Amino acid sequence: MAQSPLADGLFMPAEWEPHGRCWMAWPCRLELWGSGLMAAQVAYAGVARAISQFEPVTMIVPPGTEREAGLTCGRSVDIVAEPIDDSWTRDTGPSFVVDGEGGVAAVHWQFNGWGNKYHDHDRDRLLGRRIAEWLDMPIYEAPIVAEAGAFHVDGHGTLMATEQCLFNTNRNPLLSGREIEQQLTQYLGVSRFLWLGEGLVDDETDGHVDNVACFVRPGVVALAMPADQSDPNWPILQDSLVRLNASKDAAGRAIEVVEIPHPAHLAGDDGRALARSYVNFYIANGGVVMPSFGDPADEPARQAVVSLFPDRKVVQVPAGDIVKGGGGIHCITQQQPAGQPWPAPGG
Prior knowledge:
This protein is α/β, with parallel strands linked by helices. It has twelve helices and 17 strands.
Protein backbone atom coordinates (compact mmCIF):
# COMPACT_ATOMS: atom_id res chain seq x y z
CA MET A 1 0.00 0.00 0.00
CA ALA A 2 1.40 3.37 -1.04
CA GLN A 3 2.13 5.85 1.73
CA SER A 4 1.77 9.21 0.01
CA PRO A 5 0.05 11.00 -2.88
CA LEU A 6 3.36 11.25 -4.75
CA ALA A 7 3.82 7.50 -4.57
CA ASP A 8 0.33 7.08 -6.04
CA GLY A 9 0.92 9.63 -8.80
CA LEU A 10 -1.22 12.39 -7.28
CA PHE A 11 -0.43 16.10 -6.91
CA MET A 12 -2.05 19.31 -5.73
CA PRO A 13 -3.53 21.21 -8.69
CA ALA A 14 -3.38 24.96 -9.19
CA GLU A 15 -6.25 26.95 -7.73
CA TRP A 16 -7.36 28.12 -11.17
CA GLU A 17 -8.22 24.56 -12.24
CA PRO A 18 -11.94 23.61 -12.21
CA HIS A 19 -13.58 23.22 -8.81
CA GLY A 20 -16.36 20.94 -7.68
CA ARG A 21 -17.11 22.99 -4.57
CA CYS A 22 -15.86 25.60 -2.10
CA TRP A 23 -15.76 24.79 1.62
CA MET A 24 -16.16 27.42 4.34
CA ALA A 25 -16.88 27.44 8.10
CA TRP A 26 -18.97 29.76 10.26
CA PRO A 27 -17.28 32.21 12.68
CA CYS A 28 -18.04 31.07 16.21
CA ARG A 29 -15.02 31.56 18.50
CA LEU A 30 -16.11 34.35 20.85
CA GLU A 31 -12.59 34.50 22.33
CA LEU A 32 -11.31 35.64 18.94
CA TRP A 33 -14.14 37.74 17.53
CA GLY A 34 -15.61 39.32 20.65
CA SER A 35 -18.16 41.99 19.84
CA GLY A 36 -17.28 41.67 16.15
CA LEU A 37 -18.67 38.13 15.86
CA MET A 38 -21.95 39.08 14.18
CA ALA A 39 -20.21 41.44 11.76
CA ALA A 40 -17.77 38.65 10.88
CA GLN A 41 -20.65 36.27 10.21
CA VAL A 42 -22.28 38.78 7.86
CA ALA A 43 -18.96 39.28 6.06
CA TYR A 44 -18.39 35.53 5.68
CA ALA A 45 -21.90 35.18 4.29
CA GLY A 46 -21.12 37.89 1.75
CA VAL A 47 -18.06 35.97 0.58
CA ALA A 48 -20.07 32.74 0.38
CA ARG A 49 -22.79 34.34 -1.70
CA ALA A 50 -20.23 35.91 -4.04
CA ILE A 51 -18.50 32.57 -4.63
CA SER A 52 -21.85 30.80 -5.10
CA GLN A 53 -22.31 32.83 -8.29
CA PHE A 54 -19.60 30.63 -9.78
CA GLU A 55 -19.60 27.26 -7.97
CA PRO A 56 -21.34 25.38 -5.14
CA VAL A 57 -20.47 26.52 -1.60
CA THR A 58 -20.86 24.53 1.60
CA MET A 59 -20.78 26.40 4.92
CA ILE A 60 -19.96 24.23 7.95
CA VAL A 61 -21.72 25.54 11.06
CA PRO A 62 -21.87 24.46 14.71
CA PRO A 63 -24.92 22.29 15.49
CA GLY A 64 -27.81 24.47 16.57
CA THR A 65 -26.85 27.43 14.36
CA GLU A 66 -28.13 26.04 11.06
CA ARG A 67 -31.18 28.32 10.85
CA GLU A 68 -29.31 31.50 11.75
CA ALA A 69 -26.47 30.76 9.34
CA GLY A 70 -28.85 29.72 6.58
CA LEU A 71 -30.85 32.94 6.85
CA THR A 72 -27.65 35.03 6.77
CA CYS A 73 -26.05 33.16 3.87
CA GLY A 74 -29.17 32.73 1.75
CA ARG A 75 -30.43 29.83 -0.31
CA SER A 76 -27.46 29.73 -2.66
CA VAL A 77 -25.19 28.37 0.11
CA ASP A 78 -25.44 24.82 1.44
CA ILE A 79 -25.38 24.48 5.24
CA VAL A 80 -23.87 21.46 7.02
CA ALA A 81 -23.73 21.08 10.82
CA GLU A 82 -20.51 19.80 12.39
CA PRO A 83 -18.73 20.68 15.66
CA ILE A 84 -16.00 23.26 14.90
CA ASP A 85 -13.83 25.63 16.89
CA ASP A 86 -13.80 28.44 14.33
CA SER A 87 -13.78 29.42 10.71
CA TRP A 88 -10.42 29.18 8.89
CA THR A 89 -11.15 26.38 6.46
CA ARG A 90 -8.03 26.98 4.38
CA ASP A 91 -6.01 25.82 7.37
CA THR A 92 -8.30 23.35 9.12
CA GLY A 93 -9.89 21.68 6.12
CA PRO A 94 -8.12 19.21 3.85
CA SER A 95 -5.91 20.00 0.92
CA PHE A 96 -6.94 18.11 -2.20
CA VAL A 97 -4.75 16.22 -4.65
CA VAL A 98 -5.63 14.82 -8.06
CA ASP A 99 -4.40 12.22 -10.53
CA GLY A 100 -4.90 14.43 -13.59
CA GLU A 101 -7.63 12.11 -14.89
CA GLY A 102 -10.60 13.14 -12.74
CA GLY A 103 -9.65 11.38 -9.50
CA VAL A 104 -9.48 13.41 -6.27
CA ALA A 105 -8.14 12.53 -2.80
CA ALA A 106 -7.66 14.48 0.42
CA VAL A 107 -4.59 15.33 2.49
CA HIS A 108 -5.23 15.83 6.20
CA TRP A 109 -2.51 17.91 7.86
CA GLN A 110 -1.75 17.92 11.54
CA PHE A 111 -3.06 21.14 13.06
CA ASN A 112 -1.83 22.76 16.29
CA GLY A 113 -3.67 26.09 16.34
CA TRP A 114 -1.09 28.09 14.37
CA GLY A 115 1.85 27.20 16.53
CA ASN A 116 -0.23 26.61 19.69
CA LYS A 117 -1.61 30.14 19.77
CA TYR A 118 -5.08 28.69 20.34
CA HIS A 119 -5.34 25.63 22.56
CA ASP A 120 -9.01 24.81 22.04
CA HIS A 121 -8.74 23.32 18.56
CA ASP A 122 -9.63 19.64 19.02
CA ARG A 123 -12.64 19.90 16.69
CA ASP A 124 -10.83 21.88 14.01
CA ARG A 125 -7.95 19.40 14.21
CA LEU A 126 -10.33 16.71 12.92
CA LEU A 127 -12.15 18.79 10.31
CA GLY A 128 -9.99 17.85 7.32
CA ARG A 129 -10.60 14.18 7.96
CA ARG A 130 -14.34 14.74 8.51
CA ILE A 131 -14.77 16.57 5.19
CA ALA A 132 -13.00 13.74 3.36
CA GLU A 133 -15.24 11.22 5.10
CA TRP A 134 -18.36 13.12 4.03
CA LEU A 135 -17.08 12.97 0.46
CA ASP A 136 -16.20 9.25 0.77
CA MET A 137 -12.76 10.27 -0.43
CA PRO A 138 -9.40 8.61 0.30
CA ILE A 139 -7.45 10.39 3.05
CA TYR A 140 -3.69 10.72 3.27
CA GLU A 141 -2.65 11.52 6.83
CA ALA A 142 0.33 13.87 6.56
CA PRO A 143 2.84 13.47 9.41
CA ILE A 144 3.70 17.17 9.73
CA VAL A 145 1.99 20.24 11.16
CA ALA A 146 1.03 22.58 8.32
CA GLU A 147 -1.75 24.87 7.19
CA ALA A 148 -2.72 25.25 3.55
CA GLY A 149 -2.54 29.04 3.82
CA ALA A 150 1.19 28.57 4.32
CA PHE A 151 1.86 27.38 0.78
CA HIS A 152 0.81 28.07 -2.79
CA VAL A 153 1.35 25.71 -5.73
CA ASP A 154 1.30 26.19 -9.49
CA GLY A 155 0.03 22.67 -10.21
CA HIS A 156 3.16 21.95 -12.23
CA GLY A 157 5.57 21.00 -9.48
CA THR A 158 6.36 24.37 -7.86
CA LEU A 159 5.54 25.39 -4.29
CA MET A 160 5.93 28.86 -2.78
CA ALA A 161 6.04 29.51 0.97
CA THR A 162 7.77 31.59 3.63
CA GLU A 163 10.61 30.31 5.77
CA GLN A 164 9.12 32.17 8.72
CA CYS A 165 6.08 29.90 8.77
CA LEU A 166 6.98 26.42 7.58
CA PHE A 167 10.41 26.39 9.22
CA ASN A 168 9.03 27.78 12.48
CA THR A 169 9.91 25.70 15.51
CA ASN A 170 6.35 26.06 16.82
CA ARG A 171 5.18 23.71 14.03
CA ASN A 172 7.73 20.92 13.54
CA PRO A 173 10.61 21.55 15.95
CA LEU A 174 12.30 18.18 15.35
CA LEU A 175 12.46 18.49 11.55
CA SER A 176 15.05 20.28 9.45
CA GLY A 177 14.08 22.46 6.52
CA ARG A 178 15.16 19.68 4.17
CA GLU A 179 12.98 17.16 5.98
CA ILE A 180 9.98 19.50 5.76
CA GLU A 181 10.60 19.86 2.02
CA GLN A 182 10.65 16.09 1.70
CA GLN A 183 7.26 15.78 3.39
CA LEU A 184 5.73 18.54 1.24
CA THR A 185 7.09 16.76 -1.82
CA GLN A 186 5.45 13.50 -0.78
CA TYR A 187 2.05 14.97 0.09
CA LEU A 188 1.68 17.69 -2.56
CA GLY A 189 3.63 16.18 -5.45
CA VAL A 190 5.97 19.16 -5.85
CA SER A 191 9.63 19.20 -6.82
CA ARG A 192 10.68 22.85 -6.70
CA PHE A 193 10.50 25.27 -3.75
CA LEU A 194 10.40 29.06 -3.91
CA TRP A 195 11.26 30.17 -0.38
CA LEU A 196 10.34 33.70 0.60
CA GLY A 197 11.59 35.13 3.89
CA GLU A 198 8.88 36.57 6.12
CA GLY A 199 5.17 37.20 5.95
CA LEU A 200 3.37 40.43 6.78
CA VAL A 201 4.18 42.30 9.97
CA ASP A 202 2.18 41.07 12.99
CA ASP A 203 0.60 38.21 11.02
CA GLU A 204 -0.34 35.76 13.78
CA THR A 205 -0.05 32.85 11.35
CA ASP A 206 3.72 33.41 11.41
CA GLY A 207 3.83 34.53 7.83
CA HIS A 208 1.33 32.64 5.69
CA VAL A 209 2.29 33.17 2.08
CA ASP A 210 -1.30 33.81 0.95
CA ASN A 211 -1.04 37.36 2.31
CA VAL A 212 2.21 37.93 0.44
CA ALA A 213 2.09 36.33 -2.99
CA CYS A 214 0.29 33.76 -5.12
CA PHE A 215 0.63 32.00 -8.45
CA VAL A 216 -1.83 33.28 -11.06
CA ARG A 217 -0.58 31.00 -13.85
CA PRO A 218 2.54 28.91 -14.41
CA GLY A 219 5.61 31.11 -14.15
CA VAL A 220 3.67 34.19 -12.99
CA VAL A 221 3.36 35.37 -9.37
CA ALA A 222 1.25 38.23 -8.00
CA LEU A 223 3.12 39.97 -5.17
CA ALA A 224 1.71 42.49 -2.70
CA MET A 225 3.66 45.76 -2.72
CA PRO A 226 2.96 48.97 -0.79
CA ALA A 227 3.41 52.29 -2.55
CA ASP A 228 4.70 53.88 0.66
CA GLN A 229 8.31 52.92 1.41
CA SER A 230 7.74 53.78 5.08
CA ASP A 231 5.20 50.96 5.32
CA PRO A 232 6.60 48.33 7.73
CA ASN A 233 5.86 45.65 5.13
CA TRP A 234 7.96 47.40 2.48
CA PRO A 235 11.34 45.77 3.31
CA ILE A 236 9.72 42.37 3.75
CA LEU A 237 7.98 42.49 0.37
CA GLN A 238 11.04 43.95 -1.33
CA ASP A 239 12.99 40.94 -0.07
CA SER A 240 10.31 38.68 -1.55
CA LEU A 241 10.64 40.53 -4.85
CA VAL A 242 14.40 39.99 -4.93
CA ARG A 243 14.01 36.30 -4.16
CA LEU A 244 11.32 35.77 -6.79
CA ASN A 245 13.28 37.64 -9.46
CA ALA A 246 16.16 35.25 -8.85
CA SER A 247 13.96 32.12 -8.99
CA LYS A 248 12.89 29.58 -11.55
CA ASP A 249 9.96 27.21 -11.35
CA ALA A 250 9.94 23.43 -11.74
CA ALA A 251 9.82 23.78 -15.53
CA GLY A 252 12.90 26.04 -15.54
CA ARG A 253 10.96 29.23 -16.28
CA ALA A 254 12.13 32.49 -14.75
CA ILE A 255 9.42 33.84 -12.46
CA GLU A 256 7.52 36.85 -13.78
CA VAL A 257 6.39 39.05 -10.88
CA VAL A 258 3.32 41.28 -11.10
CA GLU A 259 3.07 43.75 -8.22
CA ILE A 260 -0.38 44.27 -6.69
CA PRO A 261 -1.12 47.47 -4.74
CA HIS A 262 -1.20 46.99 -1.00
CA PRO A 263 -3.59 48.73 1.44
CA ALA A 264 -2.21 51.24 3.90
CA HIS A 265 -0.84 50.01 7.20
CA LEU A 266 -3.68 49.86 9.73
CA ALA A 267 -3.65 48.68 13.35
CA GLY A 268 -6.44 46.77 15.05
CA ASP A 269 -7.87 47.40 18.50
CA ASP A 270 -4.94 45.56 20.08
CA GLY A 271 -2.41 47.81 18.35
CA ARG A 272 -1.15 45.06 16.06
CA ALA A 273 -1.25 45.52 12.31
CA LEU A 274 -4.25 44.04 10.51
CA ALA A 275 -3.14 41.46 7.94
CA ARG A 276 -4.84 43.16 5.01
CA SER A 277 -3.81 42.04 1.52
CA TYR A 278 -5.43 42.09 -1.90
CA VAL A 279 -3.58 38.95 -3.03
CA ASN A 280 -5.57 37.03 -0.41
CA PHE A 281 -8.30 36.25 -2.94
CA TYR A 282 -10.24 33.18 -4.02
CA ILE A 283 -10.14 31.96 -7.62
CA ALA A 284 -13.51 30.41 -8.51
CA ASN A 285 -14.87 28.78 -11.65
CA GLY A 286 -15.03 31.74 -14.02
CA GLY A 287 -14.48 34.29 -11.28
CA VAL A 288 -12.20 35.81 -8.67
CA VAL A 289 -13.56 36.96 -5.30
CA MET A 290 -11.20 39.50 -3.77
CA PRO A 291 -11.32 41.83 -0.76
CA SER A 292 -12.04 45.51 -0.45
CA PHE A 293 -11.11 47.51 2.64
CA GLY A 294 -12.44 51.01 2.06
CA ASP A 295 -8.85 51.94 1.19
CA PRO A 296 -7.73 54.18 -1.72
CA ALA A 297 -5.92 51.14 -3.14
CA ASP A 298 -9.17 49.14 -3.49
CA GLU A 299 -9.79 50.14 -7.10
CA PRO A 300 -6.17 50.01 -8.35
CA ALA A 301 -5.87 46.55 -6.82
CA ARG A 302 -9.10 45.43 -8.46
CA GLN A 303 -7.88 46.67 -11.84
CA ALA A 304 -4.60 44.82 -11.35
CA VAL A 305 -6.43 41.56 -10.60
CA VAL A 306 -8.75 42.07 -13.58
CA SER A 307 -5.69 42.38 -15.83
CA LEU A 308 -4.35 39.08 -14.45
CA PHE A 309 -7.63 37.23 -15.01
CA PRO A 310 -9.13 38.68 -18.21
CA ASP A 311 -11.39 35.63 -18.70
CA ARG A 312 -12.89 35.71 -15.20
CA LYS A 313 -15.35 38.04 -13.52
CA VAL A 314 -13.69 39.82 -10.58
CA VAL A 315 -16.00 40.50 -7.63
CA GLN A 316 -14.85 42.64 -4.71
CA VAL A 317 -16.34 41.92 -1.27
CA PRO A 318 -15.85 44.01 1.91
CA ALA A 319 -13.39 42.11 4.09
CA GLY A 320 -12.56 44.53 6.91
CA ASP A 321 -14.59 42.53 9.44
CA ILE A 322 -12.85 39.32 8.35
CA VAL A 323 -9.26 40.52 8.73
CA LYS A 324 -10.01 41.58 12.31
CA GLY A 325 -9.92 37.85 13.02
CA GLY A 326 -6.47 37.45 11.51
CA GLY A 327 -7.02 36.43 7.88
CA GLY A 328 -8.69 37.18 4.58
CA ILE A 329 -10.88 35.66 1.89
CA HIS A 330 -8.35 33.02 0.83
CA CYS A 331 -7.92 32.04 4.50
CA ILE A 332 -11.62 31.27 4.99
CA THR A 333 -12.12 29.21 1.84
CA GLN A 334 -10.88 25.87 0.52
CA GLN A 335 -11.42 24.71 -3.04
CA GLN A 336 -12.32 21.11 -3.82
CA PRO A 337 -11.12 20.19 -7.33
CA ALA A 338 -13.67 18.88 -9.80
CA GLY A 339 -13.74 15.11 -10.11
CA GLN A 340 -14.67 11.93 -8.32
CA PRO A 341 -13.08 10.18 -5.31
CA TRP A 342 -9.88 8.54 -6.40
CA PRO A 343 -9.56 4.76 -5.93
CA ALA A 344 -8.27 3.98 -2.43
CA PRO A 345 -4.47 4.00 -2.10
CA GLY A 346 -3.18 0.63 -3.17
CA GLY A 347 -6.58 -0.29 -4.56
